[in-house]
Specification:
The complex is a heterodimer of chains A (532) and B (681). Chain A is built from 20 helices and four strands. With 532 residues, chain A is mostly helical. The chains are: A mainly alpha (532), B mainly alpha (681). Chain A: It comes from Hufsiella arboris.
């Protein structure tokens, strides 16, 4: 078995074991899950260290690493040719950081799952299924396989929010489900359209192979997405339409303004571990999809739409930050800050420069660690007193000094303090965005300037929150009762938080740990899209 | 060659020792010895800095780099750039930091979070030292933000005080605003030259000098953009410097920053961090064209004047000194604006000593007042100079050192301040000779500001040290005494450093200063001989008169010449109402916009989503209704019809013979009747 397959299906197997295990073992389920995530960290760590930085991947099928390709479904469809679906896994520099990120975030989410008290069997089984689906998304190179994993993420998430969530959990779960489903249904159409346009150069069959889809030579001349045929659908060039639809599907996940309103609700209602996974990894699936699939398969459309993508990025940055400023609920504030921070991903990507694209991948990784940390921190206070209104707390620093220390680290790291990963990520997204007009004219300079306002606003909302909740004389709405409940961090909580803080710090001081891995693929992607 | 290897290592040591101390104080060592750790680390740092200074000063630059990461095709490096400027700054920063550390040993004694204090202070020193020796602008930006961050931590050190945490938030956000300008300037330079390395950009034959300016275009090795961007780049750096150096319009954070411990105000908000803006502008000065330069000069002199008017009427001892700092930084900006970087750096150095000293003395006074207040259980503000008075008898050494610092601030001969202030004033007069009438106002305004400075500092000295102590109690006189030894020693040392001989053998002419010989003004000004005698004489003559005037007013209190509560008085007392203006014009609108955008989110976007959702539900219920009524209706109708028909036919299959017989007879009869009447069948 290939390492990637083990990495992907290990959680599934553990999930099945949990399902069939007798309920008397309930107490052990979390340890099984934790063990699985630790093994995943070990495997993805091994992959990270054995990853060859010089192989660039993206549209070069031979330079993907840890590949596993097995023919999966072969159906003779008569006149329509042969249906060819492969089980095809492989990684390049765009995916390798996400494997490590996913493993680590899943570990933290598991530790955070200690708070789950009901129906443990169902919870951990779904949790592990979700784990498989996410890893699968980052490894799959066959579009069909990708789609299966992509849809498979939805199911456990829906139940995890809908069953273990807060008061309005059903509303949030359905909203989340419909939003993302709306995106992926149309994705299916484009996928099928691509299938009929692309042939495998070796077998001559139509194929779902994503890497083949990136090569214009594999398109048959008269096909719907063939670049020669210039077909139109509804008066829009077919390739542009395909790009837009795929983009919307992934952009809902990112999320972009105005397709973001599922996020605050889902986050607020989701239990803490699910919030961690949502913000830490799921949003990145959107960004990853845009880079790998939208930009990879429709590079021509990517150039034409970069202005709009940049604009969406800037709007998300500023609008998300402004909304965060208006929030009264701490979790909602952090949810909106996610919208703002993910805007940098779009801005950097749209710039089509090496700095911008690498910055945006870095931003995804950095935001993965930091948002997980932030949601974990909110969960801590919510677990203790079941409240997270900012106005109901004051002077928490006096009674929870260690907790406050971690909050300060997370806040300052998120607002882009140099020394932490978010600074490098945001600075280079902006530098790339600014450079774009000189290098390739993808997006104008003012977008970088407007985006940098987000850095200012993020300082405003985070520091305002610090001032209101943590400093000053201690005053709690729940009085003495809360004071006794608001204990400082436990060892378990520190064990979950410290690695995240350290990773954000290490990546901020030694960004080469990430940049070395992604640089080759980013350059290849930029070359693929712009030809430079 | 060997020395060239060791100097960078030593300078790195100077930066890393405080960082080590930060880590140790925050996480590892117990509270009781955290002070010793911090002081010894900064001592090592200071010794290392001395070594570096004497090796580098006038002996050539050292620039070493180490690969950091590669992005795209560009290699980003971290490195050290040691030249005269950084050598001077590293010495100045570590020296003053060392003194303030010693002072803090006594000043902060007994604070329950003392380990955090030492940790934060160490972090500041490390970032500030890193800033001055960093070799590229990205690195400077990084340390620039880190000093802002450590300043945030230190301003809000007493974090249960609301005023302190409001102040540190304000300081950080205003500095962030300035940072945006800095960042923008970095982006412009990077897109034009593909590097942010200071020496590659501005060194001899550097990339910046390859720029060509033709017909409104700025043509650089990589980019070809409008000339406007050169201005934007210059203004970006200036904007960043305005925030850090607390200049108009981003100055309002500094007075509030006085909520931090006084030792911190002394080190960070008077001597070192606020000077970082001046330092940065000197580092990047080649890119300023005449428009930017004149803007810097105008902002500088306006800030200097404005802040000194505000300082005239403040009552909080630290706020007076804070506005004084703003005002003096304005003088440094003016010097940069008129192209005399040397004078700016010179004034930065002298100001660092005497302003640090003023704050340390103020700290001693506050320390004693606080002690007396607590002993007497009095309810008054121990930082209000209206409550002080007569302290010269109780704290003679503090009095003497503070007077020396005050004289330096006024620019009285024999002090270092005299030299550096003259350097700025005289060169500004020289600069103005060839300029328009409006520009000629600048040096006169500077002179006026200098006299205002003399007045406010004289007022402070007389109110604090002369007259009678105004908080009264039985043994007040015995309660207040000289500050502890550890606080006095740095004061005495700084008092010595505020004298002329540290900088020049000639007490009356700045032109022999060793420091200025190394930093020539970047714009050569024609020396106008008469200015060099007339201006100092005029300046000092009036200064002495003003001091005498203040003496009558505040020490002898013969007659009150100023009415308070006039419009002008309140205008100055409230700092020209900048805070109110910003609150109304910026903070409130932003809050309003954020609420508005949230309501859009709730009402419009979510509203739309809900409409889509609801219409989905509606559609499905219509479909459901149709399903039940219409489609099922047809099905049911068909079903019922079949059933009815069946029932109808079933009635025939009753099983009764008689019935069958009757029907049969009826049918046969009908047949025959029909047959009979219609033969056609």
């Amino acid at each position: 078995m290939n390492l990637l397959s083990i990495l992907t299906f290990l959680p599934l197997i553990a999930g099945i074991i949990i399902l069939v295990a007798p309920s008397g073992w309930q107490k052990q389920f979390k340890y099984i899950t934790l063990a699985v995530t630790l093994v995943q960290i070990a495997i993805s760590g091994y992959i990270y260290f054995h990853f060859d930085n010089s192989l660039r991947g993206v549209d070069l099928i031979n330079s993907y690493q840890f590949k596993e390709q097995i023919s999966w479904i072969r159906l003779d469809l008569g006149s329509m040719g042969k249906l060819q679906i492969d089980y095809f896994l492989g990684i390049d520099g765009l995916s390798v950081p996400f494997l490590l990120l996913t493993s680590i975030i899943m570990m933290v989410a598991t530790i955070s799952s200690w708070e789950i008290k009901t129906n443990l069997k169902g919870y951990f089984a779904l949790f592990l299924l979700l784990d498989t689906a996410i890893i699968g998304v980052f490894c799959a190179l066959d579009f069909f396989l990708f789609y299966i994993f992509y849809e498979l993420m939805l199911l456990p998430l829906y139940f995890l929010i809908g069953m273990w969530g807060g008061v309005r959990r059903e509303y949030a779960a359905i909203k989340f489900f419909l939003y993302t489903l709306a995106g992926s249904v149309f994705m299916l159409l484009i996928m099928v359209g691509l299938y009929f346009s692309v042939t495998d150069p070796e077998t001559g069959n139509h194929t779902f192979n994503m890497v083949h889809m990136m090569n214009p030579a594999n398109y048959s001349g008269d096909s719907i997405f063939g670049s020669l045929a210039q077909q139109t659908l509804l008066g829009i060039p077919a390739r542009l339409l395909g790009f837009i639809i795929l983009f919307i599907a992934f952009a809902i996940k990112v999320p972009i303004v105005p397709l973001h309103t599922w996020l605050p609700d889902a986050h607020v209602e989701a239990p803490t571990p699910v919030s961690i996974i949502l913000a830490g990894i799921l949003l990145k699936v959107g960004g990853y999809g845009i880079l790998r699939i939208c930009y990879g398969i429709f590079p021509d459309a990517a150039i034409h739409t970069s202005w709009w993508l940049g604009l969406i990025g800037v709007v998300s940055i500023v609008y998300g930050a402004l909304n965060a400023l208006a929030q009264k609920d701490l979790k909602r504030l952090i949810a909106y800050s996610s919208v703002s921070h993910m805007g940098f991903v779009l801005l950097g990507t749209a710039s089509l420069t090496a700095e911008g694209a690498a910055g945006s991948v870095m931003q995804m990784i950095s935001h993965g660690f930091l948002s997980a940390m932030l949601f974990f921190l909110v969960g801590i206070v919510y677990n203790r007193v079941h409240d997270r209104e900012i106005a109901n707390f004051r002077g928490l620093a006096n009674i929870m000094p260690q907790y406050t220390a971690f909050v300060m680290i997370a806040f300052f790291a998120s607002l882009g303090l140099p020394g932490f990963s978010a600074f490098i990520a945001e600075a280079f997204s902006l530098i790339g965005a600014f450079n774009s007009e000189t290098v390739n004219g993808a997006i104008p300079r003012w977008m970088a300037i407007a985006g940098s306002v987000g850095i200012l606003l993020s300082a405003a909302y985070f520091l305002w929150t610090l001032q209101r909740m943590f400093f000053g004389q201690t005053r709690l709405m729940g009085g003495e009762e809360w004071r006794t409940k608001l204990n400082d961090l436990t060892m378990r909580e520190k064990l979950a938080l410290a690695p995240l803080a350290l990773l954000a710090l290490i990546l901020g001081v030694f960004p080469s740990l990430a940049f070395d891995k992604i640089n080759g693929s980013v350059l290849e992607l930029i070359h693929h899209v712009t030809g430079k | 060659m060997e020395q060239h290897d060791i100097i960078p290592v030593v300078s790195l040591l100077a930066v890393l020792m405080p960082l080590l101390s930060f880590v140790l104080c925050m996480f590892f060592v117990p509270k009781s010895i955290s002070g010793k750790v911090a002081v010894s680390s900064i001592a090592v740092s200071f010794i290392a800095s001395c070594f570096v200074f004497f090796k580098i000063w006038n002996a050539g630059n050292i620039h070493i780099q180490h690969h950091w990461f590669t992005l795209g095709q560009t290699s980003w490096d971290v490195g050290l750039l040691l030249n005269n400027l950084s050598a001077l700054m590293i010495l100045l920063v570590s020296g003053i930091a060392f003194l303030v550390h010693i002072y803090s040993l006594a000043y902060m004694k007994g604070d329950e979070n003392i380990d955090r204090y030492w940790g934060y202070l160490s972090l500041f020193c490390s970032s500030m030292l890193g800033l001055v020796i960093a070799d590229n602008l990205l690195l400077i930006y990084i340390f620039w933000e880190l000093v802002g961050f450590s300043s945030y931590l230190l301003i809000g050190f007493w974090r249960t005080r609301d005023a302190a945490v409001q102040a540190n938030k304000k300081a950080f956000i205003m500095n962030r605003l300035g940072d945006l300008g800095f960042l923008l300037a970095l982006m412009i330079l990077y897109s034009q030259f593909g590097t942010l390395d200071i020496e590659k950009l501005f060194g001899d034959g550097g990339l910046f000098h390859l720029s060509q300016f033709t017909s409104g275009e700025w043509i650089a090795p990589l980019g070809h953009i409008s000339y406007v961007w050169l201005l934007v780049c210059g203004f970006g750096f200036v904007f960043g410097a305005l925030a850090k150096s607390a200049q108009f319009p981003l100055h309002t954070w500094l007075p509030d920053a006085m909520e931090g411990p006084t030792a911190v105000s002394s080190l960070i908000h008077a001597a070192t961090m606020v000077a970082a803006g001046v330092f940065l502008l000197v580092r990047v000065s080649p890119i300023f064209d005449s428009t930017v330069l004149i803007t810097i000069a105008v902002i500088g002199i306006f800030t200097a004047f404005m802040a000194s008017t505000i300082a005239l009427v403040q009552n909080d001892i630290k706020r007076i000194l804070a506005y004084s700092t703003i005002s003096q930084l304005g003088f440094m900006m003016l010097a940069i604006g008129i192209g005399n970087n040397g004078a700016a750096i010179f004034h930065l150095a002298t100001h660092a000593f005497f302003k640090c000293l003023l704050f340390l003395c103020a700290g001693s006074v506050i320390h004693e007042m606080h002690y007396a207040k607590n002993k007497l259980d009095a309810d008054c503000d121990h930082q209000d100079i209206r409550n002080m008075g007569g302290l010269r008898k109780m704290m003679p050494l503090t009095f003497v050192t503070m007077v020396i610092a005050a004289l330096a601030l006024c620019g009285i001969p024999l002090t270092s301040g005299y030299l550096s202030k003259d350097a700025i004033l005289i060169s500004s007069f020289e600069w103005a000779t060839t300029r328009s009438f409006a520009a000629k106002l600048i040096p006169y305004l500077a002179m006026l500001t200098s006299w205002l400075t003399t007045f406010y500092i004289a007022r402070l000295i007389f109110k604090v040290f002369y007259g009678e102590l105004r908080i009264q109690g039985d043994k007040t006189e015995r309660l207040i005494h000289e500050a502890p030894r550890f606080m006095l020693m740095p004061q005495l040392f700084l008092a010595v450093c505020s004298a002329f001989f540290l900088f020049s053998v000639n007490p009356l002419s700045y032109e022999n200063t060793w420091l200025l010989k190394v930093f020539p003004g970047s714009v050569a000004l024609e020396r106008i001989h008469s200015y060099h005698t007339v201006i100092p004489a005029l300046l000092n003559l009036f200064a002495v008169l003003i001091i005498y005037f203040a003496y009558i007013q505040y020490a002898r209190k013969e007659k009150a010449m100023f009415r308070e509560n006039t419009w002008l008085y309140n205008f100055a007392l409230n700092g020209w109402y900048f805070d109110e203006f910003y609150h109304q014009a910026i903070v409130r609108p932003v809050t309003y916009v954020s609420k508005f955008s949230f309501s859009i989110d709730r009402k419009v976007i979510d509203g739309l989503v809900d409409i889509v959702g609801k219409s989905g539900v509606l559609l499905s219920s219509i479909a459901g209704w149709l399903d039940r009524k219409l489609i099922d209706g047809f099905v049911n109708l068909a079903g019922r019809a079949a059933a009815g028909l069946g029932n109808f036919f079933r009635s025939f299959q009753s099983g009764r013979i008689q019935y069958y017989l009757a029907v049969m007879i009826f049918v046969v009869l009908t047949f025959f009747v029909l047959r009979y009447f219609s033969p056609a069948i």
